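This week, think about what follows.
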Amino acid sequence: MTAGVRLIIMGRQGAGKGTQCQRISRHYVVPHISTGEILRAAVREGTELGKMAKQVIEAGRLVGDDIMIEIIRERLEQDDARTRGYILDGFPRTVAQAIALDGIAAERPIHVVLDLDVPRDLVIQRISARRVCRDCGTNYVATAQKRDPWICDSCGGDVVQRNDDTPESISQRLDLYESQTSPLLKFNGQDGRLVEIDGSLSPDEVFATLTVAIDQARKNG
């Protein structure tokens, strides 16, 4: 596929952003830049940023704008993002971050902002069933047939529920999304680059809708 896609994907936690970002990344041959993965890597490595982020993440809060903006500025200056484009997943989360991103991307503007719209009750159901490999990060879905121990099919690591996937943490994150991130829908809708996608459809149907929206935005841009 032709490269050069620059997009933001939004949606509540559990809306399916990770799955769709992987498919979009392969389809358009562009890097998937997940701020959550960047932060979790920093936590595992024990960097100064990781130590700061760990306390915030474990409390169910969002990392401050200044830190996140600098992380993204550095990442978008890397060769793959400059030449091929990127998918931003988890950034921006606030209007202040969005304004900063417009400045960072001034020479190579964002093509489209995609919002995966999934009802809150369905999101809670999805996240509560989510499991992840502690070692390689492969995602799984828990079913009625409990596996104990649960071993990753990819690397043999332990498959566990993330500490921040408890009902209390989920509810807190969703409340934060509504109060801090939802205003981005209005901000990004001002110039017509926001496209809402029904994220409650099947993964294949969602992907097909996403690619139509992306291709149209690239033609217009």
